[in-house]
Every structure is written in C-alpha cells, then in structure tokens.
Specification:
Number of strands: 10
Number of helices: 4
Number of domains: 1
Shape: globular
Helix content: 10-25%
Strand order of the largest sheet: 3-4-2-6-5-7-1-8
Length: 182
C-alpha cells in the first residue's frame, strides 16, 4: 500500500528520478513498473537553473517537489530542478510531497520530518503557493506536474513558472523554453 505524506526532507538524500518504464535501464525500485535513474540537471537550461537557485535561496521552495520513497531511496517524480537547486543553495530541509511504498517502518517514515498523511482522493493544493492545474491519485500515490517541458502532451500550466514573475531578467525563459506560449 502506498501512503502519501507532506513533510520536510533533506534534499541531499535525493539522487535519482523515477522513470515509469520498466524496460528503461536503471535501478530497481519499490514501485511497480518503475526504475530509478541518476538525477542530473538539463544542460540546456543553465539560466533557468541559476534563477531557480537564487529564488530558492531568497524565498525557499514555493511548491513541493513530488518524491517517492521505497524504504531505501528517494526518487523524484516531478520537481527535480527544485531539488537540485535546493542542494546547490545549501538547503538543509525542503518541503516535499512523498509517496511511500510498502509497509515501511518508523526509521523510513522518520526521514520525512513534520510529516502529515494526505488522505487518498483529497486535494493537495493547500500545500502549494502556486497550485498546479493537474493532479490525480494513481496506483503510485499522488501525481502532479506543470507541463513546462517541451515534449509534454498536456497544455502548459503557467503556475509552473509563477516564481519568475518578480525576476528582473526573464530572458532565459524565451531562450530555454521557446515552445511555451506565455
């Protein structure tokens, strides 16, 4: 059974992202049909990553990344850029939504500080400063995203870039996210 928590985690414990394709080369996870691959920044988004790191350093994480914990490892489902930026900014703890697999014990759940259980089929939007338009409950727990990546089939959700509204220099958005109709 998968339980979903909101809490605070050490971003330096996150080194992998979850890929929902069992044929993809990666490490096994406690989540059916998924593998883990190393979490690395997109090399073509340097301006985005630098601006995000400054934003997190100045005001913290506005919207919790979506993580998965199988008792052994944390995996990013969505929000890897936020996790990497928090690591570079030296954050000790960040807010996160965490789907926890199986019958994990207190030691595993203890890696999520100040946690609160989110009841299945309840809205998670109260945990966001910029709530996503799309979220759903699946067999893997809570899922959400903002659809700002180039190959997403879904419509762009402007909430995913709301944190950039106060930035003096937004040129990186046009260069690194040219496909967005903002």
């Amino acid at each position: 059974m998968i339980r979903t928590y909101y809490g605070r985690i050490d971003p330096n414990e996150v080194a992998h992202k979850l890929v929902r394709n069992p044929a993809y080369p990666g490490i096994g996870t406690g989540f059916a049909g998924c593998v883990g691959v190393p979490l690395v920044p997109a090399p073509n988004k340097r301006g985005f990553h630098a601006a995000l790191e400054r934003s997190i350093r100045d005001e913290g994480i506005r919207n919790p990344p979506l993580l998965y914990l199988d008792g052994e490892r944390f995996y990013v489902g969505f929000g890897g850029s936020r996790v990497l930026a928090a690591q570079r900014a030296g954050a000790e703890r960040i807010p996160a939504l965490v789907n926890v697999a199986g019958n994990t014990g207190p030691a595993t759940r203890g890696r999520i500080e100040q946690r609160s259980l989110i009841r299945r089929n309840r809205s998670p939007v109260k945990f966001f400063q910029d709530p996503p338009e799309w979220w759903e409950w699946t067999e893997l727990g809570l899922d959400y995203h903002y659809s700002i990546e180039k190959n997403r089939r879904d419509t762009f959700d402007p909430a995913g870039l709301a944190w950039t509204e106060g930035l003096e220099d937004q040129k990186f958005l046009d260069k690194e996210f040219s496909w967005l109709k903002r």
